[in-house]
Amino acid sequence: MKLIIAEKPDQGSTLASQFKPKRHDGYLEIPPNEVFTDGAYVTWAVGHLCQLVSPEDYKPEWKKWSIDTLPMIPERFQYEVTRSKAKQFQVVKKLLKKPTVTEIIHAGDPALSL
């Protein structure tokens, strides 16, 4: 079964609309058909589900910005789930862990490099 991850709910709905999906909280389920013989799930990231932690979470002295503490470059960047998007993060995580999911399709905006 494929898991399609769109960037936003309306994009996910548009992608799944031709397959008469079953609605669930935070995702859509596409029944088996000619394109998705095992069916598929469509979910979304609602923009960015994670963000970099605040500078002071790395070092307390980075809470107040000053020329003495610049540049603020941690040894290893850390991320946290955006609080307002925690519920959708859990939906995506649950779908990713399903043993029936064998393929992930990125359906968000493409990253551009110049």
TrEMBL record:
<dbReference type="GO" id="GO:0003917">
    <property type="term" value="F:DNA topoisomerase type I (single strand cut, ATP-independent) activity"/>
</dbReference>
<dbReference type="InterPro" id="IPR023405">
    <property type="entry name" value="Topo_IA_core_domain"/>
</dbReference>
<keyword id="KW-0413">Isomerase</keyword>
<protein>
    <submittedName>
        <fullName>DNA topoisomerase-3</fullName>
        <ecNumber>5.6.2.1</ecNumber>
    </submittedName>
</protein>
